[in-house]
Amino acid sequence: MDKFRKREPATVEPLLVGSRQVPLLMVRHPRARRYLLRLRPDGTARVTIPRGGSAATARQFVERNRSWLERQFHRLQTRPRPPTAWHLGSELLFRGELVQIQSDGPGRIRFGSETLAVVDGV
Fold first, then answer.
1. Are the beta carbons of 27 and 46 closer than 8 angstroms?
2. Which of 10, 56, 58, 83 is the most buried if burial means most Cβ atoms within 10 Å?
3. For every one of its 122 residues, what pLDDT tens digit does the chain have, with 9 covering 90 and above?
4. DSSP 3-state assignment of 39?
5. Cut 0.85: pTM above it
6. 7-28 as b/e, with b when 16 or more CB fall inside 10 Å?
7. Taking the domains of the chain in order of start, what are their residue ranges?
């Protein structure tokens, strides 16, 4: 087997999941032994095509697993997203516990058992 052979580029097709159209990324992988379907955190569906597999069979595989994909997409949409900025009162997981960011004097914050110095505007 040629280690330096270039892989085929992935193809992207539109896929209807529920009432939304999401990109379906079709990727060939020479070491894959079966078709795999995943939903990436960015909402892109990805199907891995094994050695000797075809794009047509990959599409059939996706169709057979559409209900699973819809459930995963729903889970992704309802999952709480971390805030883009942290503020006093924001909650975060710290060492397995949900803790709140609190002021600990000028230029300092506290969460859990930790205290940090902070700089404005950073």
1. yes
2. 58
3. 556 666 667 888 888 888 889 899 999 999 999 999 999 988 899 999 999 999 999 999 999 999 999 999 889 888 877 767 878 888 888 888 889 999 888 889 998 888 989 887 55
4. strand
5. no
6. eeeeeeeebebeeeebebbbbb
7. 11-78, 82-122
